[in-house]
Amino acid sequence: INMIVTDSAHPELAPLEIVKVIENNRPEEQKGQTSVYTINTNDPDWATLGAGYSIKWKVQTCGVTSEYSDWSVEREANVYAKPEVEIDLKNINNQSVEEINTFPFYISILAKPAEQRPVSYYVEIISNESYETVDDVGKVKMVNIGDKIYQKYYDPQDNPWHFLLEMTPGNIDLENNVKYTINVTVSMNSGLNATNTLDFTVLFEDIHYDVYGFVIVNKETLEASIHP
């Protein structure tokens, strides 16, 4: 196997050529199986291999006659850093929080590295407890542990590495004194994905309004009015 290693970040450097011979020492009944060469970054030959490198490789085979075949089609493998995604929960004052007290709140997502461009985000919120609630039309429903109460794919636009999602009562229904988990998966243009989770608790602030007034009811017209 012949491999040409190029560092795209330093094109002025001459490519490194590495030749490896893979002997087929398997038993006769296994000799027809595919041979594999593993690139081990702990090996001195590959110690400098990192993100931004490309490996162009081709192979030729040799049988019992010790004559080599023609070279195969040259293929290329690109080396990428492992992507990461960070999740932060923020309140309306842009403060990081672990509890949701009021709406709106924000899910702040940061994807790395900068050399790979996020092409989509998948966000889901899962209940960690079972509880009874009502839907949009007032019908009673049961939420079980592990149920997804929110899930959606997003296509980032302006700054795809930093994605901010606003959550309001219009797009999510949360229950007071319940714990939830946010799961976020980012897909990069390299074809790689990264996933992370964040737990939070809902503790809504209780707001009470005392109305000083009296109600006048007209029984004949079935009308009611409130007067201060």
Outline of this structure?
This protein has 228 residues and is mainly β. It contains no helices and 16 strands. The chain has strands at residues 2-7, 16-19, 53-58, 75-78, 84-90, 99-100, 105-112, 118-127, 131-134, 140-143, 148-154, 162-167, 179-188, 193-202, 214-218, 223-227.
Which characteristics define this entry?
228 residues; mainly beta; 5-stranded mixed sheet; elongated
Poorly predicted sequence stretches spanning 5 or more consecutive residues: none
Oligomer: single chain
Major beta sheet summary: 5 strands, mixed
Which sequence of strands runs across the widest sheet?
6-14-13-8-11
Structural class: mainly beta
Kindly state the percentage of residues in helix. under 10%
- Number of E-state strands: 16
SSE sequence, one letter per element: EEEEEEEEEEEEEEEE
Mean pLDDT across every amino acid position: 90
End-to-end CA span: 89 Å
Net shape: elongated
Number of helices: 0
- Global Rg: 30 Å
Strand content: 35-45%
Explain what you see.
The chain has a five-stranded mixed sheet with strand order 6-14-13-8-11, with no helix packed on it. Strands 2-1-3-4 form a four-stranded antiparallel sheet, with no helix packed on it. A three-stranded antiparallel sheet has the order 5-7-12, with no helix packed on it. The model has no long low-confidence stretch (mean pLDDT 90). 0% of the residues lie in helices and 43% in strands. It is elongated and about 110 Å long. It is an all-beta fold. The chain contains no helices and 16 strands.
